[in-house]
Amino acid sequence: MQNFDWDDLQFFLAVARTGQLSRAARQLQTSHVTVSRRIDRLEAALKLRLFERNPRGYELTTFGRRLIETAERIEAETERMNVELLGDSIGQRGVLRVATPEGFGSFFSTRLLPRFSARFPNILLELVTLPQILSLSRREADVSVTLDPSKASPYISDKITDYSLHVYGARAYLDRHEPITTREQLLEHRFIGYIEEMIFAPGLDYLGEVHPGLRAQFRSSSIFNQLAATKLGEGLCVLPYFIASQHPDLQIVLADKVWLRRNYWMTCHRDVRPIARERAVMTWLAEAVRAEEAALIRGATASVS
Description:
This protein is an alpha/beta fold. It contains eleven helices and eleven strands. It folds into three domains: 79 residues, Arc Repressor Mutant, subunit A (Orthogonal Bundle), CATH 1.10.10; 99 residues, Periplasmic binding protein-like II (D-Maltodextrin-Binding Protein, domain 2, 3-Layer(aba) Sandwich), CATH 3.40.190; 99 residues, Periplasmic binding protein-like II (D-Maltodextrin-Binding Protein, domain 2, 3-Layer(aba) Sandwich). Helix 7 links the parallel strand 7 and strand 8. The longest helix has 25 residues.
């Protein structure tokens, strides 16, 4: 076996974690050609095939899975040395892709992004708000914020917060109609909601929980299209408190009788959790979101940090 360049291990780890040359190249801020060349060089030096190439990307071979444990130990020691000797965590830099539901993505951008940028100035954040078409198994995202915990064994999910939802209507719409005092009266109104066959998480199926007879007359896969239709007086809609509370022209209907609760979970592949960058961001995000409980849950009090 030839001597190999230890620096090639960071290319190996990036491909192992992302499953794709292009994603690995983006993380390492280089070209996919360079990544491919470094992987080929490492395999030639070790005289071992570390990856199987297929249409889905790069998958570790048995030898690759053995090497990853050693490579991660070397990576961890390198990060520790940077902290101790240079006072800087090299892990808190590079590209990080986070997939979130549309609503949470907006919440992050409006309330948390400035703090994130101040805390992690060297991380290039990619926020993707179409998680239903992203695959953690193909490493199209490093971390996902989801409405339900993952039940698959390669993934780890941690609950980060609850949030409340309520039935809302435009004040002008409600002024034109008789007061609503019971759930049965909701059946007399048009409703706005999701396209049923496009609901990508069970937690988004609200209407049956409000009343089993409810059906949406206007449907959209976008929570913000639903919000716009509600503000225009097209009907009533179940909306997250953290979104609807920002619009004074909306009013809660049956505030004390209809109250839904959902959760957000942070999910990642178990291979991702040991990475310093992902670990630091996940810890920070969980703490930052929990501190915003008063904005997420109607009636909650602000956290004191």
